[in-house]
Amino acid sequence: MDGVHWVRHPLVQHKLSLLRDRKRASGEFRRLVRELSMLLAYEVTRDLPLTTERIETPLEPFDAPKIEGKKLVLAPILRAGIALAEGMQELIPSARFAHIGLYRDHDTLEAVEYFFKAPKDLPDRLVIVTDPMLATGNSAVAAIDRLRARGARDIRYVCLLAAPEGIRHLREAHPDVPIWTAAIDRGLNEKGYIMPGLGDAGDRIYGTS
Ligand code: URA
After folding, report:
1. CA-based nearest residue to 205, from 99, 86, 109, 120
2. With a 6 A CB cut-off, is 135 part of the ligand 1 pocket?
3. Atom 7 of ligand 1 has which residue's CA nearest to it?
4. Tens digit of pLDDT for each residue in 107-137?
5. Fewer CB within 10 A of the end CB, N or C, for the chain?
6. Which of 102, 133, 165, 198 to mutate to test ligand 1, by most ligand atoms within 8 A of the CB atom?
7. Distance between CA atoms of 93 and 87, rounded to whole angstroms?
């Protein structure tokens, strides 16, 4: 699928299977989300441009590769996206955060904004939107609409599980936003849950079900 990076690495697939298991307790669930987010961070940043900086090893001077100036913003869609973004931040400690608060209206399944706080220089940053579940795509599209309205230009989207419906919706609304996902599941059920999925990611992360 054009613009969709399906991360099939065995470690990712194994950890995702552990995560899907309904018997997984929330502490363990959070740990797995954190580990998966680091593995996905590795993939989504794979093409970041490098420059070199002259350093001294204990033996001689060396032109050492370093990531070029472009700054990152991790943009979690609240609340489940936070766990994914925090794991990524462990690998990229200089990344800033843009928190995007959206809730799903239970009747329309449309995304409604209740919070938005982002760094001012969004246009100069690579923005990585995080949400474990790309279901209908309504939240993803709404979050990216709002980032664009504040000037963001270079945007990527990372999730753990995607439904084909959500991928289609996001790709149609924002064809220049590539997607990284660890799985593409069968589809949505009548309540908008991804099947077979892993249930409600936020509830499982925070133990609120
Ligand atoms: N959000 C979730 O947490 N789970 C789903 O299956 C769909 C949306």
Report:
1. 86
2. yes
3. 193
4. 876 778 999 999 999 999 999 999 999 999 9
5. C
6. 133
7. 10
Q: Is 197 near ligand 1, meaning CB less than 6 Å away?
A: yes
Is the beta carbon of 159 within 6 A of some atom in ligand 1?
no
Contacts of residue 136, defined as CB under 8 A and 6 or more positions apart, other chains included, come to 109, 163, 165, 166, 169, 188, 192
pTM of the model: 0.94
Residue 138 Cα distances to 25, 53, 127, 155, angstroms: 29, 43, 18, 16
Q: Which atom of ligand 1 is nearest to the CA of 188?
A: 6
Going by DSSP bridges, is the β-strand pair 154-162/133-134 parallel, antiparallel, or unpaired? Answer: parallel
- What pLDDT, on a 0 to 100 scale, did the predictor assign at position 111? 76
Which single residue is written with the structure tokens 């939240």? 139
Confidence band for 205, pLDDT divided at 50, 70 and 90? very high
CB of 133 sitting under 6 A from ligand 1: yes
Q: Band the pLDDT of 4: cuts 50, 70, 90.
A: very high
